[in-house]
Each structure stands twice: as structure tokens, then as C-alpha cells.
UniProtKB/TrEMBL annotation:
InterPro entries: CoA-bd, NAD(P)-bd_dom_sf. Pfam families: CoA_binding_2. This is CoA-binding protein. It comes from the Bacteria. Residues 4-115 form the CoA-binding domain. Gene3D superfamilies: NAD(P)-binding Rossmann-like Domain.
Amino acid sequence: MKDKTLVLGASTKADRYAYKAANMLLSKGNKIALLGNKTGEVANHMIETDPSKISDIDTVTLYLNPKNQEQYYDFIKNLKPRRVIFNPGTENPKFEKELESEQIETIEACTLVMLSTGQY
């Protein structure tokens, strides 16, 4: 099993990219954790609303616009993930610089494309 990916901005709505990414991550053999503003379930995985229940994360894939990311800055830095993926629409140069100063890799890319092209 590969290391765990946190889908931040998780949603139970099937048309959302966060929902599609959670399902594709699982289909490719990745472990996932889901964090969102509403509880629910995606592919038999519960969406947490309490960040303190999340740990052991290798990759954070963001599905929140820069304004909605702010409340998670310290949480993400304290997780000490290997990398954070900024999906289209989530690019945040200020936060990317902060993460890089903590030796956390940042990638501006689409998780769905990375998974489907074997770059994940």
C-alpha cells in the first residue's frame, strides 16, 4: 500500500473534483483521509471535520481556494507531509513559499491528471 493522501476540501457531491480524486486515489491503491466542512462518506471513507483526527499523511491534495486554505496553514505545516498538491484554482504562492521554507514540496498540478498519467 502506498502512503496516505489527505483530500482537503472533500465533498460527497459526485460532480466535485475532490470526490473524483478520492475515488481515483482508492482505485489506484492509495490510502486516503478526507477532511471537509461537512461530514459524510465517500467510497466507504468518512469525511472528518476535525483536523486533529488526521495524521500520518504523505501527500495533501488541496481542493480549497486560497482564502479557504488559510484556516489550515498551521495544520498542514504541522502534518509535515512530503508534498502538497495545489490543484487548478487552488494555487497560492504565499502559502507555497511557506511550505517550501519548511522543506515541504509543492506541486501545482491536477491530482486526477497525475494519477491517470502515472505521475502520482
